[in-house]
Amino acid sequence: MSSSEYNQKLVHFLQQELNIPAESIALVQRHPELPYSSFPMLLWRYGLITTSQLEKVFDWLDSGLFYSAIQL
User: Fold this and answer.
1) What does the alpha-carbon distance between residue 38 and residue 42 come to, in Å, rounded to a whole number?
2) Separation between Cα atoms, residue 47 and residue 7, nearest integer Å
3) Per-domain residue ranges for the chain?
């Protein structure tokens, strides 16, 4: 899986499942020097998602739902 596919699936999850506004995602995406794997942590650090939402992202990644979404 390419990094762009990973990015798209993660952004889709954030927007569709957690209702994170596109503006919040775009704010963090302005830091291309940072690894995308730290993207959820940056959202939380900037106060754009709650701790509960951050936990849901990690649960989604850990549970394999992320990999299921890739195959859709």
Assistant:
1) 6
2) 20
3) 3-70
15 vs 33, higher pLDDT: 15
Alpha carbon distance 12, 9 (integer Å): 5
Q: Centre a 10 Å sphere on the Cβ of residue 31 and count the other Cβ atoms it contains.
A: 12
The amino acid at residue 26 is A
Instruction: Check: CB of residue 39 under 8 Å from CB of residue 8.
Output: no
Q: pLDDT at position 23, please?
A: 93
Listed in sequence order, the residues at least 6 apart from 38 whose beta carbon sits closer than 8 Å to its beta carbon are: none
Which segments of the chain are extended strands (E)? none
Place of tokens 């954030």: 14
